[in-house]
Amino acid sequence: MSIEPFALRPRTEAGQRFFDGAVALKEPFAQRAAEADREGRFVADNVADLCASGVFGATAPAALGGGGLESFHDLGAGIFELGRACGSTAIASYMHLSATLLLSRVWAALEASGRADGAPHLREILTGVAEGREVIAVAVSEPGTLASVYPLTEALPTADGQHYVISGQKIFATMSPAASVLNATVRVVREGEPDRFAFALIRTQWEGVELIDDWDALGMRGSGSGQIRLRGVRVPAAHVAPGAPVRTLEGSALYNSLVANTGLIAAGLGIAQAARDLVAGSASDRKKAHDGRSDAERPTVQAAMGELDSRLWAAKAMTARSAIDVDDFYTRFSPRSAELEDLLQLAAATRATKVFVERTAVEVVDRALQLTGGGGFMSKHPIARLYRDVRAIPFMIPQAHQSLPFVGSVAFGRRPEPC
Amino acid sequence: MSIEPFALRPRTEAGQRFFDGAVALKEPFAQRAAEADREGRFVADNVADLCASGVFGATAPAALGGGGLESFHDLGAGIFELGRACGSTAIASYMHLSATLLLSRVWAALEASGRADGAPHLREILTGVAEGREVIAVAVSEPGTLASVYPLTEALPTADGQHYVISGQKIFATMSPAASVLNATVRVVREGEPDRFAFALIRTQWEGVELIDDWDALGMRGSGSGQIRLRGVRVPAAHVAPGAPVRTLEGSALYNSLVANTGLIAAGLGIAQAARDLVAGSASDRKKAHDGRSDAERPTVQAAMGELDSRLWAAKAMTARSAIDVDDFYTRFSPRSAELEDLLQLAAATRATKVFVERTAVEVVDRALQLTGGGGFMSKHPIARLYRDVRAIPFMIPQAHQSLPFVGSVAFGRRPEPC
Amino acid sequence: MSIEPFALRPRTEAGQRFFDGAVALKEPFAQRAAEADREGRFVADNVADLCASGVFGATAPAALGGGGLESFHDLGAGIFELGRACGSTAIASYMHLSATLLLSRVWAALEASGRADGAPHLREILTGVAEGREVIAVAVSEPGTLASVYPLTEALPTADGQHYVISGQKIFATMSPAASVLNATVRVVREGEPDRFAFALIRTQWEGVELIDDWDALGMRGSGSGQIRLRGVRVPAAHVAPGAPVRTLEGSALYNSLVANTGLIAAGLGIAQAARDLVAGSASDRKKAHDGRSDAERPTVQAAMGELDSRLWAAKAMTARSAIDVDDFYTRFSPRSAELEDLLQLAAATRATKVFVERTAVEVVDRALQLTGGGGFMSKHPIARLYRDVRAIPFMIPQAHQSLPFVGSVAFGRRPEPC
Amino acid sequence: MSIEPFALRPRTEAGQRFFDGAVALKEPFAQRAAEADREGRFVADNVADLCASGVFGATAPAALGGGGLESFHDLGAGIFELGRACGSTAIASYMHLSATLLLSRVWAALEASGRADGAPHLREILTGVAEGREVIAVAVSEPGTLASVYPLTEALPTADGQHYVISGQKIFATMSPAASVLNATVRVVREGEPDRFAFALIRTQWEGVELIDDWDALGMRGSGSGQIRLRGVRVPAAHVAPGAPVRTLEGSALYNSLVANTGLIAAGLGIAQAARDLVAGSASDRKKAHDGRSDAERPTVQAAMGELDSRLWAAKAMTARSAIDVDDFYTRFSPRSAELEDLLQLAAATRATKVFVERTAVEVVDRALQLTGGGGFMSKHPIARLYRDVRAIPFMIPQAHQSLPFVGSVAFGRRPEPC
After folding, report:
1. A140-150: string of b/e by CB count within 10 Å (b at 16+)?
2. Given CB atoms, is D152 within the 8 Å cutoff of chain C?
3. Among D4, D322, D412, beta carbon nearest to A302
4. I need a labelling partner for B229 at 20 to 30 A (CA). Which of B253, D4, D74, D111 fits?
5. D147 vs chain A: nearest CA distance in angstroms?
6. B5: cis peptide before it, omega within 30°?
7. A139-245 adopts what CATH topology?
8. Which CATH architecture describes the domain D251-411?
9. Given a contact as 3+ CB pairs under 8 Å, which chains touch B?
10. Whole-angstrom Cα distance, residue B83 to residue B270?
11. pLDDT tens for residues A75-101?
12. Is the pTM of this model over 0.95?
């Protein structure tokens, strides 16, 4: 058989290398998944393997020794494969790889304009990532605010302008136990100015950074998504890139937001695919004595399986297409050249994709769980973990109740609330 | 405020006593629920309280000191309340109380026909239940068969006809750690006859009964739903009531099957109600700094809450009505006087109700989980447990893929496959 | 067979009489339905039959010769039966009967307080209804506003205070071709006061009332739901009952709003039941040569039928229960004695019921249409009409997008926007 | 604005020409749609325009003067555009263009193997199509059988083997009023052999072909999908291509079945897009006086619009991807070289796509209808037609209840029932 409908396959060479590297690690990751889940233990071994094998350097610039992967589509294809083996590893990988990809784009722009010398820290981090020595965690969420547009974590400039002093609290900081660097959203507070949204690169070993190992969740229990406290962390000014005032609907933030989507939902889709494969592969074995038939022979079970595949394929097609649209857009436009109207359309498309795909992934696992019969309800059955893991995706921002009015506003030709 | 729309409230005096007793125990049960879940430990303390308080005697005959509860509707109303506090306790209680109710009906029929003296074991068990000394577990499910119509567990008559020797394996035997008696489905095997379906009353302390304390599930982790091995258990003949040949669509089995539904789905509805109340009660507290509003003020969240309530109310109305229909039917007809056509209609109605209500309960908890925001994804948040617990209901037989063709067959005027 | 699960059956004697009268007319109504639909012609013959048979007097006071029906539940049961025969007739009947019921309650209150003499027009109208000489249409909807809380139609008091002069435009005035009286929402405009919401009783033969026979709709084509223009209609002051300022959340308006629900959704449910019965009754006839089986024998079709029945039954249970809750409430409380908190709970329940039931009715017809195979797509097949008719219900106010935030607000303990 | 997310755009030059031609005709087609619908009149003018403009020659071989379009994806893109203007025209066009495309593939194979001289009728028909003189209708459906695998229409060979005599009845023969040629499924009946499935090319002016102009349907009222009676029609043997025995799961039939999907669902998607555009474009105009806001400003309406777009985009992505997968497969494999396992996978994918897309199209129009408010319920509102038209798609074979067990069987590694 040579046909796999709706397969997520890389379209670039760099993507193929990343994909092959990810696939090669699936076997051990799958074997470790149950234990990490049961103990709520961070998948440190998997991260070590990803670093050692070069997979975690995939999105670092080729010029700095990285894999040079630029396609979000291909990033998604590889993360999907990781998700089939271990959801926690997939989501953590997505965080690191997406963050790296964004920094690589910044680096490329600086290179192109001859300003790269002014960003030695970027060179250092990206080289480290390429060599498997650095791992980046994304620290956005905060309690009590939509921190992707309105962080409460403050960055105060020092009097000499050489540093910022950063304080605040981050939650759901996936991958933080292994991170050497945090890419954190903050608000730059300057007297007499509106507070500005910014990303700050913070080394985890710096004074004042406290990783709190308290992750104990319904699912994704191996993802290390604990809290981080930042208490007066002194960060060089070059590590902080202030943008527009907080809670502004603004082009470059939208542009960067597009990166976030594909890897995340690909992780969820991978989980859904794993659930699907479990139930499809075992239908012939689920025989019942009362009528002597296996589930594979029952028309109603066949139809239920058809429903499941139909939805999963729709979600895969939408994920792939959405990523290709973003790849095309990134090829044609920079943050500067992109027009806001276009960015809104594309942001609406990626947000709508997240809503559809995350719901479908949840639903597919739910249907698969139901099709397993009572055995799937046991803790030791792998689908019980998938059922809990997949629920993480809809909680990642933007959530559906934020995304849907955004999408509708764009459809109505109105400026949406940023999210 | 005196109005609670779609409330499940008892309609009989016996029901009100049971209901009040259940409500009085909710507080301690709710407090123990998290720990039982975390440790996967059977809710033995709750069962002890239910016995001591007389709640577990509710469905034993009044003449034997029991509560005399005969209404399935009212049984559901009380179990719903238990489900709001602890799903595991509710589902275990449903097993014991439903089984007792069925036995009480048998007892009443024997009394009415002057044959009660021939069933001293029934008097003993029901008196014990009334006095809180006996607990009944239902042991139906078996691996690899639909054991509600085609058990593989065999009961072989001894040569003198005084006993049966029973061997087989039961799974999902909820409440078994506390049970003094098992009500188990078996097949009576006699040479030269078709195998017959039967219920057997088996004391758990009898030789050959092995309770295997291996319950480790996705949810309902406190329900003690482990395995039971029966190895040559010698059971007095009076304890076994052979019926029609296995896998027959037959009146008295259908008649008895009606009892099973209400308590089970009421447990699921109670879980859903608990999730609903959690999210409704906390919406005003979930404030976000980015726009200064609480969830309670957001029209889209209000609408989502409206969707949730709309569905939950539909499920409560259907549960109540279905139970009232069954109560009415039981008042008018005995297993003997009921016609098969009517039984099929009513069985279709209860099976359709189970399908609708269990799905709705799952969906309500799912929606509530989504509305809690990220906090609900943490293990310590009570909704994380509800999310896992509620999934148990659809796994209880008959499952939707068995029930729906049954319902449709009846609609088409055809004899359905028994389930 | 004596069992019909989830049947809608009257609970009062007056209800039984009304029900029997409605059932007796179903046969001719069903026969006329196709033609009325094809020609978009008002079901005048049916209305004449309803008047002549006394069915249209059902909700007029017994003391004035009417049927004395007070139960919304029983009103719904009869309208459900009409809906099974002809959706247009059912919805038109609901308008007349509900309006009459409300006026009868007003009349009863006046009687009880000895003030009935001051309302000879009420006596006249209700007597006329009882005798089958008067028909009431409800005229609420207007273009460009939510006219159930904020009508734009103005009622200006004359200088002597003896009359109001009413001008405005009404749409979707179901039943208007046969109406002798309109019960119309208006705003009473007095200088120096806030505009007040009011119901006005307007005789259709009065000068300035223009019925525009322009009804040409997707469905309910026999319901005569055309436009009405009111141009300076002079109405005696006693015919207008000013209430609270427009767009106020207010007790007596909520109290009266409860009446509106049951009959409306019962009409929709009747349509759904008709579609269900069509497809269930013909499954054995839909045989296919390619496998020699009828639809009734196919497990997947049986399961689809089971899904349909499951939903329809849920909707019927919710409709009945909601109506019983309202009946109970009306028995216990008057508009004056009812507390706002209770009214909000009950209004939330009826609005949630409308949302659930109307969606389910649409979905049931949709599923039935699909199950009919290609034949159902032909204009001459009765289900094609049902598919169009049933869509009218969700358009009737309050619509889901208004109701759901209302329900959610109440759940959150907040005052909702009136709707 | 240059970005249109999830747009269906041609990928080949021939596709672009076809697409541009279709787009150029949208305006007049849209204008004629309402009248054709109201009168149930075949869209003869549109077909004339499509012939005259060369659009109907798109899939004829370039070597014979046709457009040379080979991509199903691009075929879908153009039909989608037609569907936005007039569903009836789109679905009729799909029939003609798909049939032509299949014949062109046969012709190309004959050419390649030097056997084209033996098929002068094919050259004649395809040249006629290229020149806009011939129109092909597909005549598959029959009453009482799944005629795509088990036609009852019989083709009996004459004694001399030079002709077949064909008799039977076809229904839903879309486009037949304008057709010069029918591509009909028949069973070839030879004594001593199993009946064989075949396609027969039948000229509509031949004796014994009777087109019955009785099309009067819920929707697609301009599509001319009436009945055809075939009474002893004498057809040259070369016009009939016997394949495998009827009701066989067989490679070349599966191979050819892949063609059928994209154009059909693209027509449905075009209808859905039209409904979506109507409601999105008018949201700002739907203002309500009671709160002074337009629908475009309401968060709940925005969210509902977001839901709609999310689903529509998923369906467009799945349609495009599925077509691309088929295009790729057709490039790599011929009916002969394709393996059955691969064909089954691809057939499962296209069937699952049809199920998902047709449901989504129906749902999107339904949601759009609801969002239009009461105005959409009027016959004159264009969405009322879309609501009826879109329902045609799920009735086209294979229907969901046939497709879903097919898809599930393939997932389980089993041979499905052919459909």
Report:
1. bbbbebbbbbb
2. yes
3. D412
4. B253
5. 21
6. no
7. Butyryl-CoA Dehydrogenase, subunit A; domain 2 (2.40.110)
8. Up-down Bundle (1.20)
9. A, C, D
10. 4
11. 999 999 999 999 999 999 999 999 999
12. yes
